[in-house]
Amino acid sequence: MSKHTIWDGPLVSSVEPLKARRLFLLLRDRILSGDIGPNTRLPSEPLLAQEHGVSRVTVRRALDKLADEGLIERRPGSGTFVNTRPTSAQVTADFSNVLTHLVEMGRRTDVKLISFAYMAPTPALTSDLKLQPGERVQRSVRVRLIDGQPFSYLITHVPERIGISYSEADLASTPLLELLERSGIVAERAQQIIGATLAGPEVAAALDLEIGAALLSMTRIVYDPSGRGIEHLQALYRPDRYSLNMDLIRTGANGARRWSPVERPRVSTPKTKSIPKTRVNRVSIQRRTTR
Amino acid sequence: MSKHTIWDGPLVSSVEPLKARRLFLLLRDRILSGDIGPNTRLPSEPLLAQEHGVSRVTVRRALDKLADEGLIERRPGSGTFVNTRPTSAQVTADFSNVLTHLVEMGRRTDVKLISFAYMAPTPALTSDLKLQPGERVQRSVRVRLIDGQPFSYLITHVPERIGISYSEADLASTPLLELLERSGIVAERAQQIIGATLAGPEVAAALDLEIGAALLSMTRIVYDPSGRGIEHLQALYRPDRYSLNMDLIRTGANGARRWSPVERPRVSTPKTKSIPKTRVNRVSIQRRTTR
DNA sequence: TCAAGCTGTCCTATTGATGGCACAGCTTTC
DNA sequence: GAAAGCTGTGCCATCAATAGGACAGCTTGA
């Protein structure tokens, strides 16, 4: 039943080209979710191979990748063990802060401006921002880093009439919304859509990820009091370095009980006791950009 | 240092396992971002092959995948065209409803119970739910469907003392929180973490996706007034069928302006004027390709 | 001490993914 | 109507990914 038919049902296309990747993802999820738990010994390579119907070579590749990410430790003669890990995201955004700043607990955040240009809007942009016919937009792509590590990829579109109120240099140093409000532009209403997507080549490179990695996606459109769009943001986050947290309390009478968001204490305890060295290496290799 | 394996460079894959996948993601991003725009004709297959330095076979695979997702339409003899409105999610959850029901605009939602068992908790679960030593948990896995199409995969862990207050059959028909409150258990506080992850084999099969697809992830822990955990939920959503929407308004004085969530009208205009036929096609095709 | 079991390494088939080419059928353009 | 260009399809060659072994060196436990 589940021998060669493992790939029976699923959606599109052919055959999974990478069983190793598949096994890697499976084990990674089990480890990160705490399902396997730190310091536990994984099943032996031959066992894993048998359980998942793959060869030991494939199992080894999956384990190699896990070891590369620092999730497991392999002890020859003994077994393969799950590492204790600075688990969840390094940066968390409280719900009420989503639109403003990050929770910056004494960490240094930088912004790198990838591109900056004025262009004709796509049809989708025109309708989202309620642009006038012929009106152009400013497109900027930025990457945010914390402690030198990239965690978000931001594609921003702003109507030209608004974009000219600040400079390219401003954008590289100041949050866009702040720039806008500083110029007297009033943000009144906003709509956010949160989803998930896969990393394409450019985004993957910018966020120091492999192509096809999972990303948390947020699309935001900000409107002024007259209902015209003043900012269109497409943000892509590395889920291992950024997540959306919210605390909720149950309110209301018994008949109509519901959940309400709660203010978070501003500084959550920095649980970054040790940055895994693999990460550090990777970043230093990647780029020694801004100071 | 890094052995002789193909996976040499830790993350940024020097050798990409799947050129087709890579090209697929690249084109998908350009289409979804509006970079290519609806009704535009893509470069011809030979041209794309040349531009990206791959063979036409590979280009074809990438385009096949795009077509499967309904993003493009291929017209023999004419060219390959970007479809109008790659569409957004079919189901959207308003922020204030995240914890309750979906916005069910006259659509039929079903729940399928995948598994149900009592087991020993993992270490992570023990700490998350603040379990007593030796206390067991009830684990249930459910899939939610709308109009017969799966969109969410729910893994729930509940302390045994609480789980016994309802039956397996209850779980397949009623939301868990409702069951709990019906039993007199009080949900007081909750914490939610939203992120993204990749689909593993089981989840992919259950949600009718391919392995490695992007998923919106939500982890929720609900506590009773005494601070003990009563529910641990790991929810995985198909981002093309479910997304998190929120409307915000700018409040507060000039000094401390911030964003606050806004109540949504309960029934958002069903922008599903017509379920795009591409979707329908996909489903039927999907069944056909079972081999 | 010995036996069992584990990882590290090497080897050889087989299968899948890709590259490269040719041709048919269709649409558009001139 | 003809030419050009596109997608759909088939074929074969090449190379990477996987399967399936074998063996060495190590650790653990009896």
TrEMBL record, chains A, B:
HTH gntR-type domain residues: 17-85
Pfam families: GntR, UTRA
Disordered, as annotated region: 257-291
Cited PROSITE patterns: HTH_GNTR
Molecular function as annotated in GO: DNA binding; DNA-binding transcription factor activity
Entry keywords, A to Z: DNA-binding, Transcription, Transcription regulation
CDD domains given in the database record: WHTH_GntR
Residue stretches of biased makeup (Polar residues): 281-291
Entry's Gene Ontology BP terms: negative regulation of DNA-templated transcription
Signal peptide (from-to): none
SUPFAM superfamilies registered for this protein in UniProt: Chorismate lyase-like (SSF64288), Winged helix' DNA-binding domain (SSF46785)
Superkingdom classification of source: Bacteria
Name this polypeptide is given: GntR family transcriptional regulator
UniProt organism field: Microvirga guangxiensis
